[in-house]
Structures are given as C-alpha cells and as structure tokens.
Amino acid sequence: MSPEAPHLADETELLRIYLADRDVSCPQCKYNLRNLVGSKCPECGETLQLRVSPVEPRQAAPLTGLVLLSAGVGLNALLLIYALIQAFLFGRGRGLGKFVAVNAIEFFVMGAGVTMWLVGWQRIRRLDALWRWLLVAGTAALALADVIVFANLIR
Q1: What is the DSSP letter of 35?
Q2: Choosing a second label site near 81 at 20 to 30 A (CA), which of 14, 32, 99, 117?
Q3: Which of 37, 39, 33, 43 is nearest to 7 (CA)?
Q4: Tens-digit pLDDT profile for the chain (155 aa)?
Q5: Distance (Å, whole) CA 30 – CA 62
Q6: 95 Cβ partners below 8 Å, 6+ apart?
Q7: What angle do CA 8, 9, 15 make, to 5 degrees?
Q8: Which of 146, 145, 143 is nearest to 103 (CA)?
Q9: Distance between CA 63 and CA 110 in Å, rounded?
Q10: Is 0.85 topped by the overall pTM?
C-alpha cells in the first residue's frame, strides 16, 4: 500500500461522514449527495472532495473588470441599434457609414475583451491584488477610450 493510500481513505471517510446527514448537491449535476458511500457522484461520476474554501473568493476586481468591459459592449450595441433604426425605419442612413464602422469595431474589440476576461477569470482571481487591479485599470482605460472615440466621432 502506498503512503498516500491511507490519506486518501481518510479523505473519503471524512467526505462520507460529512454527507451522512446533509443534503448537499453535486457541484456538477446537482444530484443530492446525502449518504454518499464513495468519493464519486453516483449520477454523473464526478470525483468529489471535502475541502475548505473562502466564503467570498477574490471577486471584486474580476467583477469590476467585467462590468467595465460589458458597459463598452452595451454602449456600442445600443449605438449600432440606433444606427439601424435611423437607416431602416426613418430612412436616414446616409452619412452613418463611419458611425457604424467605428461602433462595430469598438463593439468587437470590447466583446473580445469580455470573452478574454471570462476565459481568464480563474487566473485573474489568483493574481496578487496589485496585478488584479492593474488589469481592472486597463479595462477602465479601454472603456474610457471607447467613450472618447465615440465623443470625437459625433462632433
């Protein structure tokens, strides 16, 4: 028997004891794990472990960055919808080419930012506080640049 085997058996036993009288859902499939015998969910087969984790993981910076990037996507989406309404419902589409092009580019840039932010969410959460907030400052600068470009466009 390897030195790790007793340790793993202890962890499985602690998990079994913990779930003996509690209604806890599987994090993968939401199956009720009450009276679980082993360390795998009987419904989806996900391997489970009992662990200590923070109640409030470091989410302030990731959420702030996501809100800033999403605001940029939302602004540009609304402006593109406005241009479509002007062009198709009111027949005022002339002269909107540059407006649509700039907002479409900004929409895709900010959308790519949201996508990258969501893909890197866990990595961002694990960074030191300084680096997390520097990334947020970068998203704020990108959102501000988006507004500045739009403001210069409508002059």
Answers
A1: T
A2: 117
A3: 39
A4: 455 555 656 888 999 999 999 999 998 899 999 999 889 999 999 999 888 877 666 789 999 999 999 999 999 999 999 999 989 888 887 888 889 999 999 999 999 999 999 999 989 988 999 999 999 999 999 999 999 998 998 87
A5: 26
A6: none
A7: 90
A8: 146
A9: 15
A10: no
